[in-house]
Amino acid sequence: MTLINSLRSQPDDRGHFGEFGGRYVAETLMPLILDLEAHYRAAKADPAFKAQFDDLMKHYVGRPSPLYYAERLTEALRAEAPAGKGAKIYLKREELNHTGAHKINNCIGQILLAMRMGKKKIIAETGAGQHGVATATVAARFGLPCTIFMGARDIERQKPNVFRMRLLGAEVHAVESGSKTLKDAMNEALRHWVANVHDTFYIIGTAAGPHPYPELVRDFQSVIGTETRAQMLEYEGRLPDLLIAPVGGGSNAIGMFHPFLDDPEVAMIGVEAAGEGIETGKHAASLAGGASGVLHGNRTYLLQDDDGQITEAHSISAGLDYPGIGPEHSWLHEIGRVQYVPITDAEALASFQRLSALEGIIPALESAHATAAAEKIAPTMDADKLLVINLSGRGDKDIFTVAEALETEI
Amino acid sequence: MSALSPTVRDRLSATFARCAAANRAALVTFVTGGDPTPAGTADVLDALVAGGTDVIELGMPFTDPMADGPAIQLANLRAFDAGTTTAHILKIASDFRARHPQVPLILMGYANPMLRRGADAFAASARDAGVDGVICVDLPPEEDAELGPALRHAGLHLIRLATPTTDAARLPAVLNGASGFLYYVSVAGITGLQQAAQSSIENAVAKLKAATDVPIAVGFGVRTPEQAAAIGRVADGVVVGSAIVELVGQHGAHAAGPVKDYVASLSAALLTARKEMAA
User: Fold this and answer.
1) Chain A residues with a Cβ under 8 Å from any Cβ in chain B
2) Nearest CA-CA partner of A158 in A127, A124, A125
3) Cis before residue A11, ω within 30 degrees of 0?
4) Which GO cellular component term is one of those annotated (chain A) (predicted)?
5) What is the C-alpha to C-alpha distance for residues A276 and A206, in angstroms, rounded to an integer?
6) Do B76 and B108 contact (CB within 8 A), yes or no?
7) Domains in chain B: boundaries
């Protein structure tokens, strides 16, 4: 049932979140997109689909993920804060999921949809390789052949994940066009899809792309926020005061935020990658430094020039290195329900090290953007406030990048 | 049904009518604007006309051409390397219009460069440059409101696309608002690669013709005069793009001669295609 005046009832029946979202695809793909939407509606209404999803979440992914009180981080920040300040910090441990990040939640949902639609082959794009690994994993689990499109430059900087994908039986297709990163991988995946729509399902990795992808990815990822809500009520007897999550395309963040959108007492902050600084132009912050436009099937905020040409994103975190953002985030930004803040490479690197040392948890560089923002914000909040950081992934994949940035030899 | 009434300035409808009266398909050719350079595109366009082109599609380069194959991707990169901007594309169009008052010119590209300064501004500047219509690859009928009303208000055709995946249930949505011609993308795929079987093209064109009076032009993967002739026997227009773009890539500033000769071989094939059939 759709609630009137609910912020949780988007998108509209044409896939729009306010002016954002929509279905900007070549005509060849339109019938498939409409078919996908019909199948998704049917699956959403089918208790058997939910039961299978829940069962895999529990036994294969390892959910629910813990909501963990980060005591040492909380105390360290309180020590730097004025008396009575320093929020109590919880980490939503998505990095403990099978494959090490939130990406698997969405992949399980989409491959179940693919099989419902009778599709025989799986394709996906990947940047850091996390979504590629998660897709290759579910493709292996269900015995479907899988091709992962990955920018040649990303293949160079994410070798361990490339090896993982191949180990899982996926074919990794190096994309040499354009900037050779995530957006080009997505272009190439779309090109392949348009020529193979009859038997191929495209598992999009973030809450973006043509409708219904932003909606269905959000729905599959909403397990994060739904669990957080129940866990917080159990541990603290009330809802959190602030949620913080990193935003590239923004699937982990929308999954965390969406179940709380109608709770006005819960504030939310999405953290964009500011790279070397917004003012340098070398960043991946579509909201802080971009403008509304159309790319990859949806209208959303994009990094672009005055002619509407897409400009290159820059971030130390390959998973945030994308010149767009999911359309629901663009809408939440415009209506002011969620605040979006930038964090630089240097700030994320510092927080990466601090969380590792303080809590024994090595966060993904993506997640380190969220912990860095929390380090700034928690000390300004009263000590009885509750803050949740979505720890979207683990940082093992990033140790080479971090070592290089710190000029340390491994 | 055409959304525009046939008027003196409707070069596109007049051209398809003229070709139909001559019992031949119109030759529609595509090149990327700014390739090999913004200044050098004029020679290529003139060569298309000299070779017998009836309608020209001028590609607007985009950084992320996700419906295009390698040939047009490379053409986009060459255009960007030469510094091509939207202002250059409009200048190329208006200069062309001054040289060729009668040849229809269509802008073809992706939504973001067209919408960046607003649909109304784009439609007005295209109209002022003497452009007759627009093909927007990633703007299906579902998102028509972004651009369609602005183009129609400015008196420009929004050319719709139909594909092998456009089924009977969906076709009315595609045709609603279609004008100028209907571009039948004959393969489910990207530009410039495989070619569709002639029988599937003939079936598709027959179905489309039963549903609309708008002329049907068929493209994607058409390379040889023989292919063009075969399609020209059943369709109102034949679109050739990647093969010409490859010649521009190969010959650069000296592409005009080879482009003219190649286009002439296509137009000659279309000229006789239906007569051979009747004989």
Assistant:
1) 14, 22-32, 34, 177-178, 183-184, 186-187, 190-191, 194-195, 197-198, 293-297, 299, 302, 304, 306-310
2) A127
3) yes
4) cytoplasm
5) 24
6) no
7) 13-272
Backbone angles phi, psi at A88, to 5 degrees: -80, 125
B128-165 per-position pLDDT tens digit: 999 999 999 999 999 999 999 999 999 999 999 999 99
Please tell me the CATH code under which domain B13-272 is placed: 3.20.20.70
* Fold match between domain A16-50+103-213 and domain A67-100+221-406: yes
pTM of this prediction exceeds 0.90: yes
The C-alpha of A367 sits at a distance from chain B's nearest C-alpha, in angstroms, of: 28
A26 min Cα distance to partner chain B (Å)? 5
Is A392 an annotated catalytic residue?
A: yes
In whole angstroms, what separates CA B219 from the centre of its chain? Answer: 9
Q: What is the mean pLDDT of chain A?
A: 96
A62-71 tens-digit pLDDT = 999 999 999 9
Contact B108, B60 (CB under 8 A): yes
* Cβ A138 vs Cβ A168: under 8 Å: no
Instruction: Look up the CATH number of domain A16-50+103-213.
Output: 3.40.50.1100
Closest C-alpha to B11, from B87, B90, B97, B126: B97
- ipTM score: 0.94
- How many residue contacts between A and B have a Cβ separation below 8 Å? 114
DSSP string, A96-119: GSTTSBTHHHHHHHHHHHHHHTT-
Between CA A80 and CA B239 the distance in angstroms is: 69
Q: Are A195 and B161 within 8 A, CB to CB?
A: no
In Å, how far is A179's CA from the nearest CA of chain B?
A: 9
Q: What stretch of H or E contains A297?
A: strand A297-302
Q: What is the pLDDT of residues B244-271, one digit of tens each?
A: 999 999 999 999 999 999 999 999 999 9
For residue B59, give the amino acid letter: G
Residue in A28, A178, A308 nearest the CB of B163:
A28
Distances (CA, A) of A296 to A132, A186, A311, B69: 18, 8, 14, 16
The answer to whether B211 and B175 have CB atoms below 8 angstroms apart is: yes
Chain A residues touching B162 at Cβ < 8 A: 27
Q: Does the active-site annotation cover A103?
A: yes
A178, A187 in Cβ contact below 8 A? yes
End-to-end CA distance of chain A: 54
For residue A44, give both structure tokens: 């959403």
DSSP run (H or E) holding A299: strand A297-302
Cβ(B233)–Cβ(B277) below 8 Å:
yes
Strands B26-32 and A121-126: unpaired
Domain ranges of chain A: 16-50+103-213, 67-100+221-406
8 Å CB contact of A297 and B138: yes
Query: Does domain A67-100+221-406 correspond to CATH entry 3.60.160.10?
Result: no
Contact A309 B164 (CB under 8 A): no
d(CA A407, CA B137): 46
